[in-house]
User: Fold General transcription factor iih subunit from Thalictrum thalictroides.
Amino acid sequence: MNNKYVTSVEERRLNGEDREDEEDDDEENESGFLRPIDNSSLHHAQYRRSLRALSAASSNTRIQKGLIRYLYIVIDFSRAAKEMDFRPSRGAVVAKHVEAFIREFFDQNPLSHIGLITLKDGIAHCLTDLGGSPDSHIKALMGKLEFSGDSSLQNALDLVHGYLNQIPSYGHREVLILYSALSTCDPGDIMDTIQKCKK
Assistant:
């Protein structure tokens, strides 16, 4: 009977049923008799399998949401950016830092997208649409360094909200505001716009 059992184990090995073989080898001693089942090792194996399943599930959810970032950078090009407290001007210094930020952003987030919005004359203008090319954003930014009028933070938030509302839910939506003025010239209540953007 022992020989018959050993033969069936060998047949299963030849058929490629390795998992069952490992369990059979664990339960068999040197002389071919079955050992009593060790419950603690079974529980430990189940515990390890459940930990692996949990870590795989958590890593999958981490990858699915927030992997692709959609960022709009709002830059104040109002007359406050003409101030010369930084050389050559406040707006030029901000533009150089935005250039460095864009390059660093795409180095760290190659799948993500950036769009640029400028504020001047009380209006928010979309300088570049969401895209993944740092050179096109930097070229557009450096070619439009003209500062005039007042800035309206509410108009910028309304424009950004309209664009980011179309982004799929798996993307992470962000707005970075670089503001030079001390005040904002808004057509309505900016707090309502902020609450709308939070939703």
Observations:
- Confidence is low (pLDDT under 50) at residues 18-25.
- Strands lie at 69-76, 113-120, 123-131, 172-178.
- The domain at 67-198 is CATH 3.40.50.410 (Rossmann fold).
